[in-house]
Amino acid sequence: MDNPHPAISFDNTEYAFAYKTDQELKKANFLFSSMGYESLVKLGTRITPWAIKVGLPIKGIIRNTIFKQFVGGETLEETARVANKLEQFGVQVILDYGVEGKEGEENFDHACEEFIKVINYAATQHSMPFMSIKVTGFARFALLEKLDAAATDKSGYEGRVHTEVLNEEEKAEWQRVVARMHKIISAAAAKNIGVLVDAEETWIQDPVDALTMQMMELYNLDKVIVYNTVQLYRHDRLAFLKDSFEQAVNKRFILGAKLVRGAYMEKERKRAEEMGYPSPIQPSKEASDRDYNAGVEFCIEHLDKISLIVASHNEYSSLRAAELLDQKGLPHNHPHIHFSQLYGMSDNITFNLAKAGLPVSKYLPFGPIHDVVPYLMRRAQENSSVSGQTGRELGLIRKEMKRRKLR
């Protein structure tokens, strides 16, 4: 597609990799080259979690390769060094405490406290306007599954959680989940830090949507604190976005929407096939792209009542959003627009948007290596399976190496 915003070029590798030293660029080249081998990635993603579990001494290798590429650090302090470096190039940070899949009330309470710690830390920094949370970090998966199964219209915008299907013990458990969410969001509201609620698998998404919308109703009155994540690789999410907006207008709060394409495609299709229900995933990449771009257009059309985060690695979608702002005469620093890409990927988009004066962040996970392994394995799989992603990254890295005369 033609570049709809000629002032921005995503082929400018000098801007894209200005923050990387020659050595770091060579390392990235090696890593993405390795990710091009699907069989190697498959083997690695199977062996790595097992090796860490049984205590094999591989943390050093992980730390110096995939961890360094995609993660800010093991602690907030280490992550701050990366954030400071990005800030020099006009790029902000969305902090993501990378804890996944730890169950039990003690772990849930701990995760809640960690999220609040992240909020308090972000509030002391210039370049950390947002942080990210996963409801599965402080709620039992099976509990969410039970609530989701009870949802009648299979959409979160009816705005209620069907607690009548729970027994007394489970109702008390759900109340603790709601209390943790309140605790996190009220801490964020006090410090003026945005909270991005991550999307989950379709079979637990409904209660997450309903809870997130309830928080928006309470906290998104004059400014936006809470954002829901809308996965547009699902064929029902464009309608969901519009219904969410309608609810926000009716209840007089501002909708926070982070638009992504999605992260669980293979898993979703496989489960739908195994359990004999229609796949929730779009029939094609074109359909995903169409709905994503339509979602961006819808949000920018209603930017007075929607705060939008264009979280995309797609060059056209990012350029389209920038073009729409210009067409509508909206300033690049409008408080309701933000762009974001994952740390370690699509630097050509991030740094060229920043250079054009658009507000943009890197989504920056951090945490102990053994906690962020699930995240890292997803990044490796994504880069080997998303058609052209690794090739695009490698092409840009090599173009910059050539420009620097490194090879």
Summarize the structure in short.
The protein is α/β, with parallel strands linked by helices and 407 residues long.
Question: Which helices and strands occur, and which strands form pairs?
Answer:
Layout: H1 13-16, H2 22-35, H3 38-53, H4 59-70, H5 76-87, E1 92-97, H6 105-122, E2 130-133, H7 141-150, H8 168-191, E3 194-197, H9 202-219, E4 226-231, H10 237-251, E5 255-260, H11 265-275, H12 285-301, E6 306-311, H13 315-327, E7 337-342, H14 347-355, E8 360-366, H15 369-385, H16 389-403
Parallel strand pairs: 1-2, 1-8, 2-3, 3-4, 4-5, 5-6, 6-7, 7-8
According to CATH, the fold-level topology is: TIM Barrel
Shape: globular
Radius of gyration: 21 Å
Order of helix and strand elements from N to C terminus:
HHHHHEHEHHEHEHEHHEHEHEHH
Helix content: 55-70%
Number of helices in the DSSP assignment: 16
**Known CATH architecture:** Alpha-Beta Barrel
Q: What's the N-to-C terminus distance?
A: 31 Å
Structural notes for this entry:
This protein is of the alpha/beta class and 407 residues long. The chain has one domain (69-383): TIM Barrel (Alpha-Beta Barrel). The chain is built from 16 helices and eight strands. The protein has helices at 13-16, 22-35, 38-53, 59-70, 76-87, 105-122, 141-150, 168-191, 202-219, 237-251, 265-275, 285-301, 315-327, 347-355, 369-385, 389-403, and strands at residues 92-97, 130-133, 194-197, 226-231, 255-260, 306-311, 337-342, 360-366. Strands 1-2-3-4-5-6-7-8 form an eight-stranded parallel barrel, surrounded by eight helices. Strand 7 (337-342), helix 14 and strand 8 form a beta-alpha-beta unit. The two termini are 31 Å apart. The model has no long low-confidence stretch (mean pLDDT 90).
